[in-house]
Write a structure and sequence with these properties.
- The protein has helices at residues 5-34, 38-43, 45-64, 67-70, 74-121.
- It is mainly alpha-helical and 146 residues long.
- Helix 1 (5-34) packs antiparallel against helix 3 and helix 1 (5-34) runs parallel beside helix 5 (74-121).
- The two termini are 45 Å apart.
């Protein structure tokens, strides 16, 4: 299906706007992580997911039917290309920031688990009868897939 120039232009503008909004959202999340405010990211996660899903649907539709935007003016197509380039750059920075936050978080969990395990191991010894005391029998679980 090919669209007329007016429809193609409207579609491209809508897609460009969606791309810009998603880029701004990712930049806001990146800033929140960098400022050590991950709770702000968690609060807006639903909005980010909505934008990402809409972007995925719209780009899949254009990929499946390039005629939707074929007759749009070159300026509109160029605007979408620039918005997409900015989005990809913001996405790369966001991915590195999220990975860094995940690494720090996992490192803290591991350090706490090791400290708890080593503290529980202390204090075991022998009693008056010469038998070894049993240590703390509670388990320490570290889920490596979380």
């Amino acid at each position: 299906m090919t669209a007329d120039p007016t429809t193609a232009t409207a579609y491209l503008r809508r897609l460009t706007d969606l791309t810009d909004r998603l880029t701004a959202r990712l930049e806001k999340e990146t800033d929140a992580f960098a400022s050590r405010r991950p709770q702000e990211v968690a609060a807006g996660l639903a909005e980010t997911q909505e934008l990402a899903n809409a972007y995925r649907r719209e780009t899949a539709q254009v990929k499946a039917n390039p005629g939707l935007i074929a007759c749009a003016p070159a300026t509109e197509r160029t605007a979408l290309i620039r918005a997409t380039e900015a989005f990809e750059a913001a996405l790369a920075i966001h991915a590195r920031t999220v990975e860094a936050a995940r690494s720090v978080s996992e490192g803290l969990v591991r350090a706490i688990a090791q400290e708890v395990a080593s503290a529980r191991a202390l204090g075991t010894g022998y009693g008056a009868t010469g038998q070894a005391h049993s240590g703390d029998s509670r388990a320490v679980t570290l889920n490596r897939t979380a």
